[in-house]
Specification:
mainly beta, Immunoglobulin-like, 3 domains, six-stranded antiparallel β-sheet, 1 helix, 31 strands, 6% helix, globular
Length: 390
């Protein structure tokens, strides 16, 4: 018997594949599937979010898709899940949940765009986090740099310090003598403090310098051999324009003998993410616009806690300027919704966000926009310069 020619084999395979597709196609690629389009938007920059991943869970079944370059995510949910309730979640690259909502799979969901408010923590972590260039070794005391935080004009540097000798030794800092030089030509001295473990130089920042000498305001601790302790240095009065410390001279004493510890080219985190975004330590604050509720007009903000810890976010008063040359003082804050402003602080869970509102009273009837808002966060003023329509 002769072997079939190649074209006969191809025809037979084509027929078999076609039959399988016709029979199984509806199950593998349901033609009546519900299509869900989701647009991921960065809650800080308002730009398409490309790194998000979306998960839809229905009856324990997970459907997972990633965003494309335009921040779009597309699902096709099989017909068998129609008219069923589910959960939609957005997670970051580390698997941390950033957003969730309940959804119902039906015709109303079909081709519905869902704007999801997300942010990527990695984009705002300072580049010098655990930068080994800022480590130091001083007379066999090892200084391991951990991180640097910038809160307005206040900079905090965190270290783990280990006594590498076999015996306990006394470590002393006299922060009054620390000197910081920035890239704007400024020299900052007599305006810093230091802590070893939970022990800080008791008087902190001093205004009256007349009675001071180099023996005043120290912080000391007996450092156990081989056991690292937390140390931090704090300096105030740093220019918001400064992008780095070109040099830092720390006053360090070991068993009361003065030592030299110097760092150079220490990069500083930025204080702004644009005209309507402020960065304060682990918080990012975005001015979203102006909202009217009944007879009251509110300035609307959103704060993000980028930390893995719960922190209390504190704000002070604000000053608003309209396009008619008028100035307004904003004193009260409402967290969550624009009603009954009563407090100026709120506890924020790790990697969470919260909206807050500040009423602007008696706005000029001819004003059509707020040109700028200056908001006090902690002890520092931040300007939001992007005009918002009233």
């Amino acid at each position: 018997m002769k072997k079939p020619k190649n074209w006969i084999i191809v025809a037979m395979l084509t027929a078999i594949i076609g039959f399988a597709v016709n029979k199984l196609g509806d199950k593998i690629f349901p033609s009546s599937a519900t299509t869900i389009n989701i647009q991921l938007v960065d809650g800080i920059t308002a730009q398409p979010k490309r790194t998000g991943k979306v998960i839809i869970i229905i009856d324990g079944k997970e459907f997972e898709e990633s965003a494309n370059k335009d921040g779009n995510v597309k699902f096709k949910i099989p017909e068998e899940y129609k008219e069923k309730s589910g959960k939609l979640k957005v997670v970051d690259k580390q698997g941390n949940e950033q957003y969730s909502e309940d959804i119902l799979i039906n015709d109303e969901t079909n081709e519905k765009n869902i704007e999801v408010d997300v942010f990527d923590v990695e984009e705002f972590i300072p580049k010098n986090h655990k930068n080994k260039a800022y480590d130091a070794l001083v007379n066999n005391f090892k200084f391991d740099f951990q991180e640097l935080k910038r809160e307005g004009e206040r900079i905090t540097m965190f270290y783990k310090v280990t006594n590498m000798e076999e015996e306990d030794r006394k470590l002393t800092f006299i922060p009054f003598l620390n000197v910081f030089f920035d890239d704007q030509g400024n020299q900052i001295k007599q305006n810093s403090m230091a802590c070893i473990a939970k022990r800080c130089n008791s008087s902190g920042f001093k205004r009256d310098l007349s009675a001071w000498d180099e023996k005043r305001n120290p912080v000391s601790n007996s450092m156990p051999a081989g056991i690292p302790l937390n140390v931090k240095f704090v300096v105030r009065g740093v220019s918001k324009k400064a992008t780095k410390f070109t040099r830092i001279d720390f006053d360090v004493r070991i068993n009361d003998n003065k030592q030299e510890m110097q760092l150079t080219n220490v990069e500083l985190p930025t204080t702004t993410g644009g005209p309507n975004v402020a960065i304060y330590g682990d918080f990012i604050v975005k001015w979203e616009g102006v909202q009217k509720q009944s007879e009251t007009t509110f300035a609307q903000f959103k704060v993000f806690n980028l930390s893995a810890q719960t922190y209390t976010f504190e704000i002070g008063h604000a000053t608003a300027y309209d396009n008619q040359g008028n100035q307004y003082t904003l004193k009260k804050t409402a967290f969550g919704k624009p009603a009954n402003p009563q407090k100026n602080s709120e506890k924020l869970l790790p990697k969470s966000s919260e909206r807050f509102y500040m009423p602007i009273h008696k706005i000029d009837a001819s004003a059509t926009s707020i040109q700028r808002i200056t908001l006090k966060i902690g002890k520092s003023d931040y300007d939001f310069d992007e005009a918002k329509k009233i």
